[in-house]
From TrEMBL:
Residue stretches making up the EF-hand domain: 62-97
Pfam families documented for this protein: S_100
Listed GO MF terms: calcium ion binding; calcium-dependent protein binding; transition metal ion binding
SUPFAM superfamilies the UniProt entry points to: EF-hand
Cited Gene3D superfamilies: EF-hand
Name listed for the protein in its UniProt record: Sentan
Organism: Buceros rhinoceros silvestris
PANTHER family according to UniProt: PROTEIN S100-A1-RELATED, S100 CALCIUM-BINDING PROTEIN
Amino acid sequence: SIPIAKQLASIQALRKSSELEKAFATMVLVYNNSADPEGKLSKTETKSLLQTQFGHFIQGQENKPKYQEIISSLDEESENKIDFEDFMILLVSLALMSDLLQEIKNVKSTK
């Protein structure tokens, strides 16, 4: 597979884009690289993708009830698949409860 950075570089519209645009494009590319031809992920694939690509945000969250609820919903034996919109909701939910988010918020920018 082609590295995400190389995929990003190939998108001409992103060459003069903001950091936020690049970050969002990266999320889309990571998702699309894992999704099936219909653009969806199984719950097992979703859990694996979160663990490999979002591990620093979910690290240490295992004992939080909301985290357990989210992960247990992915562990259910079901043929339901996750689309991009649902994946983004998962990312936002996990990021909002993460201890890493608070650490990031506390970083002072220097000029």
